[in-house]
Design a protein that fits this description.
The chain starts with 5 loop residues before the first helix and ends with a strand. Strands 2, 5, 8, 10, 11, 12, 13, 14 and 15 form a nine-stranded mixed beta sheet that branches. Strands 9, 16, 19, 20, 23 and 24 form a six-stranded mixed beta sheet that branches. A five-stranded mixed beta sheet has the order 6-4-1-3-7. The protein contains seven helices and 32 strands. By secondary structure, it is mainly beta. The chain has four domains: 95 residues, RNA Polymerase Alpha Subunit, Chain A, domain 2, CATH 2.170.120; 90 residues, RNA Polymerase Alpha Subunit, Chain A, domain 2; 87 residues, RNA Polymerase Alpha Subunit, Chain A, domain 2 (Beta Complex); 94 residues, RNA Polymerase Alpha Subunit, Chain A, domain 2. β12 and β13 form a beta hairpin. The longest helix has 22 residues.
Amino acid sequence: MKKNDIPAKISVLIIAIFLWSFVMSDVNPEITREYRNINVNLSNISALDRQGLVVMEPQDATINVRVTGKKSDMDKFSASNILAQVDLSGYNEGQVKIPVTVSLMDQVNGIRITNVEPREILFRFDKLITKEMPVTIKTTGDLPENYVLGDIISRTKSVLISGPRTWVNEVSQVVAEINLNDRTSTASERVATVILDDKGNEVRGVGKEPNIVDITVPVYRTVILPIELQTINELPENYTITDISITPSRIAVKGKNDIVNLQKIDTKPIDINSLLGKSAMEVELQLPIGVQLLNPDEKITIIYNIEEAATREFAIPVRDLNIQNLDNKLEIHEDDLNTLIKVTLTGYKSIIDNLENKDLGLSIDLNRLTEGRHEVSVEINKIEGITQVDINPQNLVLNLINH
């Protein structure tokens, strides 16, 4: 080979390389593609767990990635080659922007990331908390007629709810619901609780312990019965009780279904001497076992009068009697008109002390009697408060004569 051929060959090689590069750049150009909604992986979640934190937002983090490379290489590239992740370690409760790290897996030389959007993602972390809430018993439906509901008892008074602070703070009440339709007796059952917000909507994502509570639902039969006064001992001889009444006279009670067999409710025995000097007294009822007042605050009162007894004697001549149906041709002999009728009355002193002769209304009926001697009966008005009447003589012998 001649020495002067070497430069020529080098020039030819350079030209060939240039021509090859030119041809290749035209045949295999560099292109850019954008991959949208690439899922962002969360790393170091265990760091959140140790702090009692949980990711509230976003639920699913995504980004858009722009990649540039040769066409031949890009044709072999897919979104699965893109790895996007955020590191969750070192953060506290609240909102924070966390940078996104993006890399290419199985990277072919020459393919590169040219843009990431967004480069930071806003995360919100909540503290996991536990809160004690009382169990609220709610009822639906209606009991049958003549049945009432007692105080529902839950063996579990409260439950522990747990979850992200935001969701736990939304909880307004923990409810156990009971349906009352067709219930006629007391029953116990297990009821699942439901967590509700202040609008009555169920709160999701919050745990509760226990999930089920044991509830007793008391159901009573009701009846209305008369009240009967029970007394012990007796008043002194010269006193008597009058105008006694019980208010209310009938009382509503509740109990098991056999309560319908009761006929009355007695008062507890009252020493009748304790009534002296009063006109009313509150009394208690002698309720049978298992029977309760429908209204436990209802008061039972007896209202009465206690009268002192007295005896009084009246002497009334026949002429002052109410003489009925005497024939107008006849008259009673003068001696008989002066005959005294003695009336002895026993009763309430307040009444007896105010009586006059005319109030007794003594009368005789001479209807169809003719001249001569006749026996007639003396009648007296019925007087309220008089317990005993003695008339002497009860029967009169009168001599009827012509004018």
